[in-house]
Design goal:
Largest interface: A-B, 62 and 69 residues
Largest sheet of chain A: 2 strands, antiparallel
Largest sheet of chain B: none
Number of strands of chain B: 0
Number of helices of chain B: 5
Radius of gyration of chain B: 24 Å
Structural class of chain B: mainly alpha
Order of helices and strands of chain B: HHHHH
Distance between the termini of chain B: 61 Å
Number of strands of chain A: 2
Helix content of chain A: over 70%
Number of helices of chain A: 22
Radius of gyration of chain A: 22 Å
Oligomer: heterodimer
Chain lengths: ~500, ~150
């Protein structure tokens, strides 16, 4: 079995004492930031990104992946205990999980969420190991037109899944693409949109952009509208064990969630958010007793939690095999990889197998660590919820500033961070969500390059996109998605889904 | 003319401005043709689309009711930006410890009713902690004190 050989390579690489330590640091820091109310994985990754830069590529990716899972776990904890979702993918956990907590089953809800996530994480890891290589060989048949069509589909999905107005989301993606083009044009060496600033010659720096848009704007938002103080429901270790009945209800839901999440994670535009909503809807549909949903249904915690974790893992597949991030979180991961000097894509698997498989193995290790540190240490995380915000935010701000300074001592970086803070603030006031913009920002140069190459191959004939079966299929999918947006009935469900937040 | 959805109206205008500036600045770049795309080809198409969407959003905001723009509170954003600016300007001159303390002090004033003693104590401990992590544990190159 080749899969096991590969995984063995991975565990060798990820199992070194050093990497285990970075994995642990990653999941602990991720949980730490993720538990804080209102901070989801995107700001958490942005804030913690700089501390991984000094490490070697594998360690830094292991740590980043750990931060991501940690933040997601932390977010679930906050959802269940305080009813405050840190991010869209734990919104549904909030619905059922917090109801369970209010009925005195907080411990069980946490345990079900953690065990469901761990199970899904395990399957997700096997999934990547099994499907990564075949998908990478399919990826080798991908040509420029196919890449272009795939990115188009990914961006369309990002628009469908964004909150609020569709038109605004389209504009945000486009602005992201444009910002991604700033800098030197690879083909001609001409600088574009640099306004004569030498700091922009190599493009807009990723770190000040994400820190400004997500880290700092988040702080200002919370200062303007302080979240109402909410009492965390306390729980003890010995109340953690789910009852037999709860377990019986939970495990089939977790199984379904894992399957659904693994599949949805691979899709362009898919990921944790889509998976948790889909799983919740599924559980509600097939339940014999749909009326208990909304009052603390165990399935409504187990399913979505398993689904979002499975999807969080499998959404690494498009990034690692095709080099295309499928959602804003993966866009941040890709940004981090590029800063480390790794161009994600099918080549990583053959040129740096230790890197690819080490990362896959570390995902499982990270998930195991999360169960261990989350369940027994839940008391510590709950304590963290009581740290007053007036102390938290200056520390987070300092972290952002030092992070930027430590990667580049250019004062221009601080200026960029300030500019993107102001820009993000304006977007917030105008009700525009910046997450799709990051995806556009990362994809901008790639899309241009692939469009250019496609049209050079076809001598300017756009039918090349329809002639190739792969790109034609992807384009049909894109058009279908667009129809869904325009189709009024679907639009209504989309609005309803986001209403619940 | 009545603006029915101030948020969307603002967003529309922002998009139009973005697109227009992009088109204007990009007009120097060679457009080329589909067969031989110049550096201006892709960006100009995108800017055009941004401006177009801006136009649609603006027109819609005149017809369809929507949310108002929340009041802008100056205190948080001004103090947060001041904190970053002070840090960015001063770190090369006076080192990480003091500029970190300054950042936290400025940031603290982004809220009302600041507790001065608590803030100072917190600023000093956090600065020490962060410098230990970044400079000593992670080995990031940055001046700890002035005069280096």
């Amino acid at each position: 079995m080749e899969v096991f050989e590969h995984l063995a390579t991975g565990f060798m690489a990820a199992g070194s004492l050093e990497n285990l330590m970075f994995c642990l640091i990653g999941v602990v820091l991720g949980t730490l930031i993720g538990v804080l109310p209102g901070i989801g994985p995107i700001p958490a990754l942005a804030i913690l990104l700089p501390i991984t830069f000094g490490l070697d590529p594998l360690s830094s990716l292991i740590m980043l992946a750990g931060i991501y899972y940690g933040a997601q776990y932390g977010g679930s904890t906050t959802s269940i205990l305080v009813n405050m979702p840190g991010e869209a993918s734990s919104v549904v956990t909030c619905i059922e999980g917090h109801q369970m907590a209010r009925k005195g089953r907080a411990g069980a809800a946490l345990a079900i969420a953690a065990l469901g996530s761990f199970f899904a994480g395990t399957i997700g890891t096997v999934f990547i190991a099994a499907f990564g290589p075949p998908l990478a060989s399919i990826a080798q048949q991908f040509n420029s037109p196919d890449y272009f069509a795939l990115m188009l589909l990914g961006l369309t999905m990002a628009i469908v899944l964004a909150h609020g107005s569709v038109l605004k989301a389209v504009a945000m993606v486009l602005i992201g693409l444009l910002l991604g083009l700033v800098g030197t044009d690879i083909n001609t060496g001409l600088t574009r949109y640099t306004f004569g600033l030498s700091g922009l010659w190599e493009g807009i720096d990723f770190l000040p952009l994400v820190l400004g848009l997500f880290g700092i704007v988040e702080i200002i938002r919370n200062l303007e509208n302080p979240p109402p103080p909410r009492e965390a429901i306390s729980t003890r270790m010995r109340d953690m064990w789910p009852t037999k009945k709860e377990f019986k209800e939970a495990y089939p839901a977790a199984l379904r969630g894992t399957g659904l999440g693994s599949l949805l994670g691979i899709l362009p535009g898919g990921g944790a958010v889509l998976a948790s909503f889909a799983s919740y809807t599924l559980e509600k549909k097939i339940s014999k007793n749909p009326r208990k949903f909304g009052t603390g249904a165990v399935e409504g915690v187990a399913g979505p939690e398993a689904a979002n974790n499975a999807a969080a893992q499998t959404s690494f597949i498009p990034l690692l095999t095709l080099g295309i991030p499928s959602n804003p979180i993966m866009a941040i991961m890709m940004g981090a990889m590029i800063i480390q000097g790794i161009q994600p894509g099918a080549a990583v698997m053959t040129t740096r197998p230790d890197l690819f498989w080490g990362m896959v193995a570390s995902m499982w290790i990270g998930n195991l660590m999360l169960v261990v540190i989350n369940l027994p240490m839940i008391g510590i995380w709950v304590k963290l919820l009581s740290v007053p915000y007036r102390l938290l935010y200056p520390a987070i701000l300092l972290f952002c500033a030092i992070g930027v300074y430590s990667t580049s001592t250019e004062p221009f970086m601080m200026v960029l961070m300030i500019v993107f803070t102001v820009f993000g603030y304006i977007l917030f006031k105008l009700g525009c969500e910046p997450a799709p913009m990051v995806l556009g920002f990362i994809l901008g140069p790639l899309m241009e390059e692939n469009l250019r190459r496609s049209l050079v191959i076809s001598r300017g004939d756009p039918t090349i996109f329809i002639d190739r079966p792969i790109s034609a299929t992807l384009l049909v999918a894109t058009v279908l998605m667009l129809c869904l947006i325009i189709f009024p009935q679907f639009r209504k469900t989309r609005e309803e889904a986001f209403q619940e937040e | 003319m009545v603006i029915k959805s101030p948020q969307d109206f603002g967003a529309g205008i922002l998009f139009i401005l973005f697109g227009a500036v992009g088109l204007y600045v990009g007009s120097d770049l060679t457009f080329g043709s589909a067969r031989n795309m110049g550096p201006g080809y892709f960006p100009m198409i995108i800017c055009g689309l941004i401006a177009l969407i801006g136009l649609i959003v603006t027109v819609k905001s005149l017809a369809i009711e929507g949310p108002a723009i929340e009041r802008i509170q100056l205190r948080p954003i001004v103090f947060i930006l001041l904190a970053i600016a002070a840090f960015g300007i001063l770190i090369a001159e006076i080192g990480a410890v003091i500029s970190s303390i300054l950042l936290i002090m400025f940031a603290a004033y982004a809220r009302r009713d600041v507790k001065p003693v608590e803030t100072v104590v917190f600023a000093v401990t956090t600065a020490a902690f962060v410098v230990i992590i970044f400079v000593y544990a992670l080995g990031q190159p940055m001046p700890v004190w002035w005069g280096r």
